[in-house]
Amino acid sequence: MTMTYDCIIIGGGPAGLNAGLVLGRARKNVLILDEGRPRNQVTRETHGFLTRDGVSPSEFRRIAKEQISAYPSVTFVADIAASITGTDGHFQITTAQGITHGSKKVLFAVGKKDVPLDIQGLADVYGTSAFVCPYCDGWELRDQALVLIVNGAHAAHFAKVMSGWTKRFTICLNGSDDMTSADREELTQHNVPIYDAPIRSIVSTEGIVQYVELEDGAILPCTGIFFGPKLVTASGLPKTLGCEMTETGTVVVDKFGKTSVPGVYGAGDAATEMYQAITAASLGALAGIGINSELLMEDWGRGHDQ
User: Fold this and answer.
1) Which of 3, 61, 70, 220 could connect to 212 by a Cys-Cys bridge, CB 3.0–4.6 Å?
2) Which helix (H) or strand (E) holds 169?
3) Which domain holds residue 19?
4) Where does the UniProt annotation place the signal sequence (predicted)?
5) Nearest 5°: CA angle at 228, between 224 and 233?
């Protein structure tokens, strides 16, 4: 007979782990399904997380699992949720290995994944000297010569953000033509070089970028890159189940992670566009509280003794 968990958490990053911690401490039976391939595995360090600043993503997870293991009602399974059926209180999740698990509630903490950008050489430097978030990696590249690869619509905003870490940066639009004349004028007034031509390649040595070469022959020397990623939710299951999604593919949730589908919650990068490990963890904690509260109210309403 299939065991019915109080909650199945799909995804074992900061959001899923923190939700598991909260629910484990609340004495709920929880299953955390995770394939062990986080988006941030390409990076060497996690930053901006109090008490864990500089820890590697793998070490962060190891410590989290070690601490959660103190709560025996939380189980980890290395697998992928392949399909989900059912309704609130009676969900059935079948994994890639063909195992079906039952659950009263479901938390999607699946994160987002990168859509590979068609830029030759980017994969060689991503996570070593090319990054997407200045709050995560700006300190390490402070005052250095950088190339910002960003479309025109976001270039001015990105430039203003990056100016807190370095004034030595160049905007590379990589062939996009959506920069307004007002933004171009503003950047020019701040002496920010702008290159419109598409990128031919990023040249690097052992993961450290040396320069960006453009199709028109221009060479942009630099020691680091920040670029705007293209992201999609890492699982199609929230949409399949009928969860409301934004135009950018983010799961719509309330302050406790509740989606538009009863019994289904979302947390972390899948449910926000503020991509910080500590933000994901905090959203996981709130979702854990929301799930536990809902389970308790349902039990109370049925007159169960606690």
Assistant:
1) 220
2) strand 169-172
3) 4-114+231-301
4) none
5) 130
The model's pTM is: 0.91
Q: Write out the two tokens for 235.
A: 């699982």
Q: Residue 79 carries which DSSP code?
A: -
Nearest residue to 190 (alpha-carbon basis) of 213, 162, 228, 216 = 162
Give CA separation, 142 vs 54, 138, 168, 191, in Å.
16, 6, 9, 18
Find the helix or strand (DSSP H, E) in which 217 lies. none
Q: What pLDDT is attached to residue 305?
A: 52
* Cα–Cα dist 10/23, whole Å: 14
CATH number at 168 reads 3.50.50.60
Distance (Å, rounded) from C-alpha 241 to C-alpha 246?
Answer: 15
Whether residues 239 and 99 fall in one domain? yes
Q: Characterize the bridge pairing of strands 146-149 and 224-227.
A: parallel
**10: CB partners within 8 A, 6+ apart:** 16, 33, 34, 81, 93, 106, 107, 108, 109, 110, 235, 237
- Tokens describing residue 134: 């200045």
The separation between the first and the last C-alpha atoms of the chain, rounded to the nearest angstrom, is 25
Q: Which helix (H) or strand (E) holds 125?
A: helix 122-125
* Cα-based angle 177, 130, 64 (whole degrees, multiple of 5): 125
> For residue 48, which of 142, 139, 144, 158 has the smallest C-alpha distance?
139
pLDDT in tens, 26-58: 999 999 999 877 666 667 788 999 999 999 999
d(C-alpha 74, C-alpha 289), whole Å: 15
